[in-house]
Write a structure and sequence with these properties.
Radius of gyration: 28 Å
Largest sheet: 4 strands, mixed
Number of strands: 4
Strand content: under 5%
Number of domains: 2
Structural class: mainly alpha
Shape: elongated
Length: about 375
Amino acid sequence: MRVLANIWFLGGKELRSLLHDPAMLVLMLFAFTAAIYSAATGTPETLQRAPLAVVDEDHSPLSRGLRADFGPPYFLPPDLLRTQQVDAALDAGRYTFVLDVPPHFQRDLLGGRGPQLQLSVDATRMLQAFTGGAYVQAIAQRAIAEFEQRARLSEPRPAARLALRNRFNPALTPSWFGAVAELINNITMLGIVLTSAALLREREHGTLEHLLAMPLSPLEIMAAKVWSMALVVLLGACTSLWLVVHGLLGVALPPVTAVFVIGAALQLFAVTSMGIYLGTLARSMPQMGLLLIMILLPLEMLSGASTPRESMPAAVRWLMLGAPTTHFVSLSQATLFRGARLAQVWPQLLALCAIGALFFVLALGRLRRAIGALA
């Protein structure tokens, strides 16, 4: 009971210290509000209102119908250009795409001569250029197929058709995935930053020596920092999940998110222990910042939140199984998007428990050696 009381009161001290640290409070507020909103809405993965122009050298019903198919929400209403105006318009950056319909396009199509459309793309607008070509091709192919069907030139429609139904995100809204991915990344980042900063603050202010003069063990000191900082981040994450992700961004959440909360608590147990370990390695906050760059970037980029793990090399996939973020990302996507229950995600919870316990033991051993060097 004495050990638990020491851990409780030391944790309260950490919470009061955090309340008097305006920089950390601003960081938490930004990470759980503006950072999530900007990540979800700032760089959409789908094309939206891209400027497009059409060079119509055919002036046929097909070319006019093709031009009418381009418009919001993917493109702005297309402008008509002459061939001589294309280079100047692209050089001036007025259009990202210019579609050239050659002369006699409809006649050659009906005659089976296989005419081609030319698409000029301003590749300096990278986000639109990467995805826009596929959109233009799909819209043009659909318009041509509909024209051929009306002209009775297409083959008979097959008896079976493929009907696509998008589950869990019916409108394919990219902000849903971006918001949850950013929330996951910020939970990891804040769990490491707050605990490492709490330990470094003790060292820089000279209060770590005061703790050594008290009848306290390294386990009590570390456990107090872990539970207090994990509690703050967990409360902030749950508030952000319902107010920002669900309320402001409109992401559909399952009625019960208790499994996600349990997974977030275990993830924080692992990353706060990692923060203590890094805090014993660094001698100052600038050194801690450099270590964070080396740690956070691989954890965020290779965990599956930004890129599917199936597209990574096998060696990277096996290596990242030792990172808690890999299992937390899988658990979060399963619970928040697909409404998975405990029976479906217990392997991820078990992996987080094991990884967290390993990091806790390693951090505790490192903290004991660091405190022994100060004593």
